[in-house]
From TrEMBL:
InterPro entries: HAMP_dom, HATPase_C_sf, HATPase_dom, His_kinase_dom, HisK_dim/P_dom, HisK_dim/P_sf, PAS, PAS-like_dom_sf. GO terms for molecular function: phosphorelay sensor kinase activity. This is histidine kinase. PANTHER family: SENSOR HISTIDINE KINASE (PTHR43065), TWO-COMPONENT SENSOR PPRA (PTHR43065:SF42). Signal peptide: none annotated.
Length: 625
């Protein structure tokens, strides 16, 4: 049973934490507002007191200077000014009379933000004798503001800390601990212990929740027991199957997952159930189309030899979809059978016979290998260039030899040399094409179907066979007369060209060997027919060899059955050919033969490939006559 993971303690929000944070924040805001108000009030009050003190000093300073200025006692005036300036509060002084300035330390434009600027008249009796200006520093106000702010912040911090810690301890005791015990009990129930009864707490509202949870746990325990019995029964049934069995609903969600499915996908049933089949088993992502088709048509569907790649290795599987009864919840059961080993054995058999065929062709291409062939074609091309009148170098060399290029070309034309060189080049290209066809035929190919013209494919196989000279049997395919009876209206078929070509070559080689072993009065010949027969493409290959009796004819398609001597054949050629036609291409292959009257192979192929369609019955060995 799936359960959600608990929320991390570092990220989750709790009631106790939210209440603690809320109360602490509210306390901090209230004290911050009060502190701000007090800071403004206290600062303004101290500023007014400072300005009043500055005014008193200015009045006193003007009064003290009256007598020395009246007596023109400059030294005394300066001493008085210096005495007042020794204070940190008074920063600058200017003393002026009607005649001159005795003392001046005030800047031209004092900043109001930094200074208190006061001006006083100096009077002796009723007579005005001068003026004085004083600048008082505001640094004392700034110091007062700083001390006040620090005190307020410290008070707010301490009060908030005390309230926060107290609230935290209170909430932890009254709220957090009961909820933690409740959560721990719920997690125990969620883990599968449905018989657990959660104890009641002191708070009535929490007890209501606990009672409902206990009732729910008992009900879940009862239902879980019933479901477990049913699940075990179904699991024993599906796990006993050797195939992968996956049950899906119409939307593709997994409803059943057997042991083989777990083995192939690496995902157990607990994690697979409820997930989309394409997410837990990507190999079956395309199977949903078949599931919907099977449900709609109410019949099983089968896909044979479905390929997939795993770590570079090609795997083959047969997939069968069985729709569920419409009276149930719907959906289908997907069965997957791994047939990789069977397919690989089949491919090995096909490739083995193909290699035997290529071995027979080796003598025919002994002197047609690529390196000397490339040298011949390259030198012919160089000779053609050396005899061309388009190159100035050719004219220069010809004149040094006492001839002209037109004369050389006239001679060459008279002796048909250009035609000979062109013939050599054409023959070289043809030989290169032969080598290319034979090498491409011998390579192992993937199962890729293409649209092919059977007449062209049959003629290409004949060209391959014409280069086959068997050193043991001493037969030469080029000495066999070929009769072609092709119907031009036969449509193309979808097939694996290399495998169909292998079938044709096996039949042609067997016929050539049979005719070479029993030379008669009639020259050996083969009749090739391509026509339509009962809506299918029909290929017939008939020879005039010795034929075969009924006993041999009945076993001709059996693996490893051969009438040849040891070392000449493996007995796999015709059995592999039969498998290629019937299993890989959904066709039929029959043989008709009578001793002394030759042999005729008849192959029927569907116009459109049906190798991947579900065959309700497997092809049976043909009836031969």
């Amino acid at each position: 049973m799936k359960h959600s993971k608990p929320v991390s303690r570092r990220t989750r929000r709790t009631i106790a934490r939210d209440l603690t944070l809320g109360l602490t924040l509210m306390t901090a805001l209230v004290f911050s507002a009060f502190g701000a108000f007090y800071q403004v009030y206290y600062t303004n009050r101290e500023a007014k007191n400072l300005e009043s003190e500055a005014a008193d000093i200015a009045d006193e300073f003007a009064e003290v200077l009256a007598r020395p200025l009246w007596n023109l006692d400059v030294d005394t005036v300066k001493q008085i000014a210096k005495a007042y300036l020794s204070s940190d509060f008074l920063s600058a002084v200017r003393i002026e009379t009607n005649l001159e300035a005795y003392f001046d330390t005030i800047p031209e434009q004092p900043q109001k933000e930094r200074w208190i600027h006061l001006k006083r008249d100096i009077v002796s009796g009723d007579e005005h004798i001068g003026t004085t200006e004083l600048l008082f520093s505001r640094e004392r106000i700034q110091a007062i503001q700083k001390r006040s702010l620090i005190s307020i912040l410290a008070t707010i911090f301490l009060v908030t800390l005390v309230i926060g810690l107290g609230t935290h301890l209170l909430m932890k005791r009254m709220v957090a601990k009961p909820l933690d015990r409740l959560i721990a009990g719920i997690r125990t129930i969620a883990a599968g212990d449905y018989q657990l009864a959660l104890p009641l707490e002191k708070q009535s509202d929490i007890n209501t929740i606990i009672s409902e949870i206990n009732i729910m746990a008992r009900e879940i325990d009862r239902r879980e027991t019933d479901l477990k019995k049913l699940r075990e029964t179904l699991k024993n049934i599906v796990d006993s199957m050797p195939s992968v069995l996956v049950g899906v609903d119409p939307e593709g969600r997994v409803t059943q997952w057997n042991r083989e499915a777990q083995k192939h996908s690496g995902i157990d049933a607990e994690h697979a159930l409820g997930c989309h089949v394409g997410d837990v088993y990507p190999f079956l992502a395309e199977a949903m189309g078949w599931v919907k088709q099977a449900i709609a048509e109410r019949r099983p569907l089968k896909e044979s030899k479905v390929t997939t790649r795993s770590k570079g290795d090609v795997r083959y599987s047969d997939i069968t979809v069985y729709p569920l009864d419409s009276g149930s919840t719907g959906g289908a059961v997907i069965r997957v059978d791994d047939v990789t080993e069977r397919v690989r054995i089949e491919e090995m058999m096909v490739q083995s016979e193909k290699m035997l065929s290529v071995g027979g062709l080796a003598a025919g291409m002994a002197h047609e290998i690529n390196n000397p062939l490339a040298g011949i074609m390259q030198n012919i091309q160089v000779m053609q260039n050396r005899l061309s009148s388009d190159l100035p170098k050719n004219h220069e060399v010809a004149e040094r030899c006492g001839v002209t290029m037109p004369a050389i070309q006239a001679y060459m034309q008279g002796r048909s040399m250009p035609q000979m060189m062109a013939m050599i080049m054409e023959s070289g290209k043809r030989a290169a094409k032969i080598v290319e066809n034979m090498l491409s035929f011998s390579r192992k190919s993937e199962a890729v179907t293409t649209s092919c013209d059977l007449t062209q494919l049959l003629d290409a196989t004949v060209e391959l066979a014409e280069n086959d000279y068997d050193l043991k049997k001493k037969y030469d395919f080029r000495k066999i007369e070929i009769v072609r009876e092709y119907d031009s209206k036969v449509p193309k078929v979808s097939c694996e060209a290399s495998k169909i070509q292998q079938v044709f070559l096996n039949i042609l080689s067997n016929g050539a060997q049979a005719m070479a072993e029993n030379p008669g009065q009639t020259a050996p010949h083969l009749v090739l027919r391509v026509k339509m027969d009962d809506g299918q493409a029909c290929v017939e290959i008939e020879d005039n060899g010795p034929g075969m009796d009924a006993a041999v004819r009945k076993r001709i398609f059996e693996p490893f059955f051969t009438t040849k001597s040891v070392g000449v054949g493996t007995g796999l050629g015709l059995s592999v050919s039969y498998f290629i036609i019937t299993e890989n291409h959904g066709g039929t292959m029959n043989v008709f033969s009578t001793p002394g009257a030759g042999t005729r192979f008849v192959i029927h192929l569907p116009v459109e490939n049906t190798a991947n369609e579900n065959l309700t019955e497997q092809s049976l060995p043909p009836t031969t006559t």
